[in-house]
């Protein structure tokens, strides 16, 4: 089982073929024991995964099914592609379980309920200062003196617990994991529009022994959420992880989530959100995406803008807790509140972005500006976003007709969310819980590395630059990341990395300071100026002398802790064809054309085609002989000497005149 061991080391789970019963028509007398039953009988989790799994393969399964094991869940899965499942998104599901657990801990503490997480020791919140540690210690002492009378554990129904909805559940794996791994739940509704998926969800709930918590639903997700808009019927947590864009579900979701509830949204249509189709992005999210180096963070800010805009229609607003760009998708966790006064402040949280097509410099333009209205303000009372705040239209633009650095034009993108995309105290709680209980999730190391980078980001600096793009613009060698960060720190600016890009640089330095540092680097690593075009951005940028003397001596604070500790921040590709999977089909199976295309496109730049038989073979339109069909040219990728070059002078003249007349 070497292959299974390798898959487990990458944070994935295996899919094992199951043995069918001897007589498929005979109903099963007893379902296999659930993980909870195995632990109740005194069996260790390791033994339950060896001996208990063999018992699961005997009864309660249909012919040809497999079992997918992830976390504490074991999901019956059809062999055909009738229900969607992607094993690479285990990180997504692990992170969601961790976030909902901490959200439940904070929310249920207000209801007098204490949650108990298996394997978790005493809570030690990671804080950034000693003063905060002392304050937390005093708070924990007070909380210890007044312990809540009610405790909630995993797998048990809590009357004052959270009501969770997974709008597009597919096999129900995520919902089953919620029921088995997240304490303090009152109910979990796993909904899917597919009848086969809803049937599979019900079977998996029974298979894992969580039917008392998990209810399967076969409804249109939007209609289900619209029907639950009442204040007493809303869900505390709504999870949307669709195949593609979640745009059609957002309007219903912001209404069906409770006051202060948690909304979790995944977007996998990254081609649209990363700038390939700006017009499509506007039609779905009300924002124009542009191709840029910071496209992944901009995608996060676009979905946050869309959520806030749709919530504002119903006098609601969002508070982002955590927003991450992972692999081929983005994931946001936001809380939704109601307040007419706060909603008025939403317009000042959005911004347009001006992006230079030549050098990549960008500037943000807020949609509105707010100021304190002293005339209507009571003496000694400061209210932001309230009666004492006056809003006015923004003034701009922040750039001229041409870029001041390279002379090229600007692209206009947005609007997008311009406020912080993380709640750092909340992220610190999730990070502390995961790092203190690493055996809880299969991807704990990656979660710890990702959240560590999130806590190090400059929260008040939207978007980022990349060192390789700055170097590519002026055609010089790329400076080492630590030296470039040190130069910014020596110049008096703040700088951080970004979880969304490996070589990103988030800084509050203006573009002029960045280009001054690059000019100083170019003087030490000169480029051949004679080869630069006078109209190129590189020529215009290097023609200006730097206004500061950059220091590239490496500073100690230039290397962040997550990098020093060698945390798993950007993992390698986990497996072949690890990206977005094919959409589930009612008849099951994946078309052979799709698999052939994937294999053909794998490493297409590394494995160049050398065999001429694999090249295209069709009549070349450029050199075709119109008058004589027998004279054709076989296209071999490059126009080498062939029949088309052996035509007579008269044939060439006749062909050219014919094409001219036809034009």
Brief characterization of the structure:
The protein has 663 residues and is α/β, with parallel strands linked by helices. Helix content is 34%, strand content 19%.
Distance between the termini: 66 Å
**SS-based class:** alpha/beta
Q: C-alpha Rg, in Å?
A: 29 Å
What strand order characterises the main sheet? Answer: 8-7-6-9-10-12-11
Percent in strands:
15-25%
Number of strands: 20
- Low-confidence spans: 1-59, 124-135, 137-145, 379-386, 625-663
Report the total helices: 22
Explain what this protein looks like in three dimensions.
This is tRNA (guanine(26)-N(2))-dimethyltransferase. Belongs to the class I-like SAM-binding methyltransferase superfamily. Trm1 family. It catalyses: guanosine(26) in tRNA + 2 S-adenosyl-L-methionine = N(2)-dimethylguanosine(26) in tRNA + 2 S-adenosyl-L-homocysteine + 2 H(+). Residues 1-55, 589-612, 626-645 are annotated as: Disordered. It comes from Sparus aurata (Gilthead sea bream). There is one protein chain. The protein is of the alpha/beta class and 663 residues long. The protein has a domain at 464-559. The protein is 34% helix and 19% strand. It is built from 22 helices and 20 strands. The protein has a 7-stranded mixed β-sheet, with helices on both faces. A 3-stranded antiparallel β-sheet has the order 1-2-3. The radius of gyration is 29 Å and the shape is globular. Residues 1-59, 124-135, 137-145, 379-386 and 625-663 have low confidence and may be disordered.
